[in-house]
Amino acid sequence: MPREYQYPFELRHLIYFREVARQLHFRRAAEALAVAQPALSRQIAQLERALGAPLFTRSRRRVELTAAGRLLADRVEPLLRALAGLPAELQALAEGRVGRVRVAFTGLAMATQLPGILREFQRRFPGIRVELNESPTSAQLAALQNGELDCGFFHPDAPTPGLRIRLLLRERNGVLLPADHALAGRATLRLRDLAATPFVLFPRSHNPGFYDRVLAAFAQAGVTPRIAEEVWPRANGVGLVRAGLGATFMCPSEARLLPPEVAFRPLQGPAPESRLVVGWKQPPDPPPVLAAFLSVAPPPA
Q1: Rounded CA gap, 248 and 226, in Å?
Q2: What pLDDT was estimated at residue 92?
Q3: Is 2 domain-assigned?
Q4: Which among 46, 84, 222, 251 has most CB atoms closer than 10 A?
Q5: 262-265 and 174-178: which strand pairing?
Q6: Given a cut of 50, is residue 99 above it in pLDDT?
Q7: pTM listed for this prediction
Q8: DSSP letters for 61-86
């Protein structure tokens, strides 16, 4: 194990040096520091011995910085300024006003709740950096348990040990069709109307609960689904619908702004339900930065 470097001087030596460098007068510097002039002179001499170089040239009329003194003055000023601001920075960190928060999201979150949360959070807490990562529910749950995320916007279906969740959205899905689909002109549809239509879903491993609710809805409708593609992320599925390769499920909150190549239609009868939560790891009291982020998230739905 490498030995820790021992500095041959202390912080007070740098503080005293900076004041003498500012004043270029030992008596005035001693008065500003509220120390005796002989004591100040000894501290400067100790610093010069520690650094192995004279820092000032002294005469009866004036005090001037040497080349080494000018170099040290350039280095020490930003250092001492940063140290002076450290207590305020630590206080801001403890109060959750600065730092970073790591947030994962699904496509549904970004299409509904998350943009408004991010906008308000940036307005209220400009000193906190948000690190965003789109990932499926299964990956978020693992990352939250491992401490790789601070919070996630995902779709829960089974109990989540060790996590706390807040429900943000719960809606029945409708269906997203190509605009030129034969059934796109109807106001509402039933799943049995779509028995011949191929569907674009996502891999079951990403969100088993919703995938199983999709299959259950088809079973209730007496229809065997035709699954044309399984893709992720969400935007890819919507892109395939735009290309005319199939239909997909979407909740009404997600369908407010759609390109002209697609049409959203509500479903009557059996339909899968989407649930969106924000979740974070226990204990009940989150760190200050995470608490700040959660304070902006909507209250439980």
Answers
A1: 11
A2: 66
A3: no
A4: 251
A5: antiparallel
A6: yes
A7: 0.70
A8: S-EEE-HHHHHHHHHHHHHHHHHHHH
